[in-house]
Design a protein that fits this description.
The complex is a heterotrimer of chains A (321), B (504) and C (155).
Chain A (H helix, E strand, L loop, with lengths): L1 H25 L8 E5 L6 H17 L3 E5 L6 H6 L9 E7 L1 H8 L10 E16 L7 H10 L5 E4 L5 H13 L4 E4 L2 H10 L5 E5 L1 H5 L3 E6 L24 E8 L5 H15 L2 H9 L3 E6 L2 H21 L4
Parallel strand pairs in A: 1-2, 1-3, 5-6, 5-7
Antiparallel strand pairs in A: 3-9, 4-7, 4-8, 4-9, 4-10
Helix pairs in contact in A: 6-11
Chain B lengths: L1 H9 L2 H19 L5 H12 L4 H26 L8 H12 L3 H36 L2 H18 L4 H15 L2 E2 L6 E2 L13 H19 L16 H10 L1 H16 L5 H15 L11 H25 L5 H13 L13 H35 L2 H20 L2 H19 L4 H28 L2 H6 L2 H33 L1
Antiparallel strand pairs in B: 1-2
Helix pairs in contact in B: 1-15, 2-4, 2-15, 3-4, 3-14, 4-5, 4-6, 4-13, 4-14, 4-15, 5-6, 5-13, 6-10, 6-11, 6-13, 6-15, 7-8, 7-12, 7-18, 7-20, 8-18, 9-16, 9-17, 9-18, 11-12, 11-13, 12-13, 16-17
Chain C lengths: L9 H21 L5 H27 L14 H21 L1 H16 L6 H25 L10
Helix pairs in contact in C: 1-2, 3-4, 4-5
The chains are: A alpha/beta (321), B mainly alpha (504), C mainly alpha (155).
Chain lengths: 321, 504, 155
Amino acid sequence: MKTFHKILFTAVAFAIVVTFGFISTASAEYPDKPVRYIIPFGPGGESDITARFQEPFFKEKFGQNLVIEYKPGGGGAVGWAQLNTMKGDGYVIMGTNLPHIIIKPLQKDVGFTTDDITNVYMFHYTPDAICVIDASPFKTVQDLIDFAKKNPGKVIFSGSGKGTANHLAQVNFDGMAGIKTTYVAFKGTGASVTALLGKQVTAEWGYTTVPAKYDGIRMLAVAMEKRHPVFPDVPTFRELGFDLVSGAYRGIAVPKSTPEDIRKKLAGMIDEINHDPAFIKKMEDNGFAMLNAPYGAKVDAFMAKQKKIISQAAKNAGIIK
Amino acid sequence: MHVFSFILAAMTPYHFSIALGGVVAGTVIGALPGLTATMAIAVLVPLTFSMSPTSALILMGAIYTGAIYGGAYSAILLKTPGTPSAIATTLDGYPMAKRGDGDLAVTLACISSVVGGLVGAAFLLALAPPLAKVALAFGPVEYFWLAIFGLTLISALSEGNLLKGLIGGCIGMLLTTIGVAEVSADIRFTFGSKTLIGGIEPVSALIGLYCIPVLIDLVATPARHLKVTSGNRGFRLREALSLSWRHKFNVLRSSVIGTIVGILPGAGGSIAGLVAYSEARRTSKHTDKFGTGEPEGVQASESANNATVGGGLIPTLVLGIPGTPPDAVILGALLVQGVRTGPNLFMGGESSIIYVFIAGLFLATLLMLPTGLMVGRYAYRFIITVPKAVLVPTVAFMTIIGTYAIRNNMSDVVIMIVLGAIGWILDRCGFKPSPIVLGLILSRIAEQGFVQGWTIGNARGSVFAEFFARPISAGIICFICVSLFYPIIARRWKLNKELQNDDK
Amino acid sequence: MTTNKREFDKPGLIMASIFILVGGIFLNDARTLLDADSYVFPMAICVVMIVMCIGFIVWNLLKPHTDEDAAARPGSTFRRVGLVVLMLASAFVMPYVGFLPAGFGVFAALMAIAMFKPWTWKIGVIYALICVAIVTGFYVLFDVVFLVPLPEIPF
């Protein structure tokens, strides 16, 4: 009987320990396991790179890994369409891009609408910029405009795709400057820059990240409110008289089913990374521009404003009716 | 030469073990259909954050090298390219395996891969900055003609059934138009289906068109999968080495082709293998044997695709423009580490990273010879001895999970199976899978090049001049004409000669 | 290539006709595309394909010959169809049931379909163990090493 008591005692003790274990994991701090960070594009793009930048900061501050996964397809549509089918426990987050998530649903039925995407934070953007190679005869934006006025259609811009920030910028600027230029869409910023470097095109509608990453390229102007800290010599379009402030905005979204407190927590975490000086420096050194639009009123207002601007620009470009 | 001091620096036990582990892991990953070199490297990127940039590069390079080689296993033994770069290896590798020469094919693949890798790495070492300019000289129009050149291979692959081959190629090209368009980002031919918005993923289509029909036929009869010749012939190393020596020109030329194709951004191992295969076939004395199990085909494809490892790194490291898809991941990892690409990597203070890395690449490639032979031996033994009731479920299961892992999408698996069934039916009707696959792989490049070239040509004033008057394009067009008409001319010339001899 | 039999290449002709239909469907759908950049290439391919299919049909009707490469394959149609059906079923079921159950199921079923020798208890046990080992092995490889999010068991 003594052995039986011993066994009984051990079993009960074990059960108590295990139960406490479960309870403690149930009320454990979020995050207590790695977080899946899904990039709805292939590797190597801006979304991927900024996610990779965030990865070590996340690990350092919150103790868990950010596991980056790629889910390419449909220019992001496949990933975004599947977002709300995923578990809303805070361990699945997805990268989002403007103008894509605004324009795509307006073009065709792509499996999601803009409102389906629950953005918790918009954390950076890549401002539009006109890029030329160092040897280009164009030294200022005015040079380009003069040439374009004399040779309509002969100025060829490369850009990272149709319906992207690059394309919209080209359409908008053509309208503002009263010129007609040709836009050739390439698959992503990399191919677009290659075309520029290879002199296949006259100039590129790219981002401020381009001269930061590639040698031999300079910018004529940037579409920002103030000059970029890393490129103090490049004027903004506003300074030159064109009200052009735009770019590709990127953020993080969660499935709709994610509870409110997790959304806020996640937003707080991204916010913390976004205010880390080392992170800011890394982003800006690589040409990115910071943006802080956290979950709640701020991100809602941001999305509402951008929706208006972008859908108008897309209509002008003839991408949507 | 100071480079040798860097080679010694690369030979630390730590680097040695990374290179060894990387190559073996890469080989295994590459052999599994559905898992590509890109994926393998992407998974390991977080690991590299805790390493120095040099070690990270060596690890990624080793895995890359191993994976590109590993694709040959399933290509030869299962007719399924383990990675897209092994497509051309299936063309002669699988027939070789079918007739019992699978071990020879695997050994040949190993030797050719090693040579190709060394040649690519050598170009990277010696001529990277000037060669990077080649990457820039290729514009949309050049890519278009390159794709057309690749498509002419259809005529070679469909001897006697040219019409069916061309129709198959068109079907392949049409399949890629489903989903988001290359240039216009329009959504095409989804017929209302949300699943098809993602388009048909090329690797899953590859597995579907090549592997599933093999499985379907395996299941139908109790006959053995591959012919097994009696006796243990070991590696057949001597035989393979003598073959490699005899065809050394083929191997070297294919390696150079592979390096150059690797330099072109957007063109990867698959195109390199196909172009090299096409050239090898054209210039070989045994042209007619290609497709029935001619060793030269395997040699050409494998040396070319491993040469793209070194070749692809040229624009990646010099310009920051990835030469092949895995290079994009490597670039991302380097960026996080703070390594700035550019010509200054090859000189100045940072040069040590590059030279130690290239030395590591040489090391990994050389290590691939013994490890590749060993792994190959076990793979071969496994496939031929395992009973069908285990082989079929294992391979089927592998394709399901491998295809799922590409985009974490179950619909890719469904598409793969459906395409497989269709592919089997088409094969039954005389429409072989290879032309369809060629169309699938080359269509995007062709369309992109065409539409972009058209837009630029229009803006410049003459579309005709844009497509035909550019020097590199003209060169490629000449190549295409030679490729297409040379066999006809050569045959007629031979006939004339015979007639002349008869007259005497 | 031509055989002595003056027979039509029936499978080829049927397929070519189907392709003409497919080409027509695509061409029709391409009319909804507004951007020239979108429709120019697919339309060109469809036209080329339809022309070649017609050419093939006409040629075969004029000079009937069967395709030697496309000879009928011996073997059990039941097993062939079974393989495809099983694989499709596992793909559809897996997101709902989870990876491991569906994996074990399809593996075991395929073993049954590919088995040509008579079953014995010994073989049954060994094969069951192999099934468990391989499926679990791949699961671990993909889930733990590659961090692929495999469908979870929903309970």
